Amino acid sequence: MSAAANIEDLEAHRVALTGHCYRMLGSPADADDAVQEAMIRAWRGLDRFDGRASVRTWLYRIATNVCLDALSSRARRVGPTEDGPQGTPESELVKKPRTHWLEPIADQVAIPQDEQPAEQAMLRQSIRLAFVAALQRLPPRQRAALLMVEVLGWSAAETAEALDMTVPAVNSALQRARATVGELREAEPGGLTAEQRRLAERYAEAFERYDLDALVALMREDATLSMPPYALWLRGEEQIRAWMLGRGIGCEGSRLVPVDACGAPAFGQYRDGGRTPWSLIVLDVQDDAVAGVVHFLEVEDLFPRFGLPMSLPA
């Protein structure tokens, strides 16, 4: 096989590797860096690739070790509702650095389009914010073991070889990880149902009208609202309504542009009729209601990653 063909073989797996590294690291920027480092290591080691495993398996092993190296020197990222206790609409806004927070990823850069629909649905479930946030609570090797077995479908023996562990150690790590994270929910082929996508559309329509009665009617009673990089988060319809009619009133008159993020419906939010990029909204839709709303406010980095412009035409 020629060197050019080998390079193409490596690049063919970039999207799958990006999704894997995102699950490990909780940041699309960190995932990009890890995949690039894995590609460099793989290219330099092509002469040592013996073909006993597939190129994809070999690349996953390299990328996992890149992520483990990175995690050895950094604090874990936290989910939007994990930093401190529940607040109120009057609570102080405390801003944390971007490196503190779990960040969203665009579906198209993390889920290979050539996978079967059922596999794509499972991969969408595995980049949901709640699941990736739970993963970040695990020690790095537990995290890697769980992903290799539950998401990649590797055996305990294959995982042990990749992580330089014994099979009993892998099984023990899996037992502890599953107790923390829980089993991956079985995904329906195609991911979100048509009813759930319509629910997200109704949410966007109510938000653009700023019809708070219609908006909270789409939410569970215990729904949450969070706004990274601020640590404040709220729970419950009345708290969310009070925020949006109070300190969040500047969102009135917003326009929303649909995107797919973290296996969930999401929107680029523009305030002032489209002139001001404001947030990337990611919805947690469970069954027939919105269980959580996250407004990621670091739009200067996030919007380009989702192909969103920095303003909308009038």
Describe the fold and architecture.
The chain is an alpha+beta fold. The chain is built from 14 helices and 6 strands. The protein has helices at about 5-10, 15-25, 30-45, 55-70, 105-110, 115-125, 130-135, 140-150, 155-165, 165-180, 195-210, 210-215, 235-245, 300-305; strands at about 220-225, 230-235, 255-260, 265-270, 275-285, 290-295. It has a 6-stranded mixed sheet, sandwiched between helices. β3 and β4 (about 265-270) form a beta hairpin. α3 (about 30-45) packs across α4 (about 55-70). The longest helix has 17 residues, at about 30-45. The chain is globular, with a radius of gyration of 20 Å. The termini are far apart. Mean pLDDT is about 90; it is low at about 1-5 and about 185-190.
Core attributes:
six-stranded mixed β-sheet, 14 helices, alpha+beta, disordered N terminus, about 325 residues, globular
Summarize the structure in short.
The chain is 47% helix and 16% strand. It is of the alpha+beta class.
Distance between the termini: 53 Å
Class from helix and strand fractions: alpha+beta
Strand content: 15-25%
Number of strands: 6
Q: Helical proportion? A: 40-55%
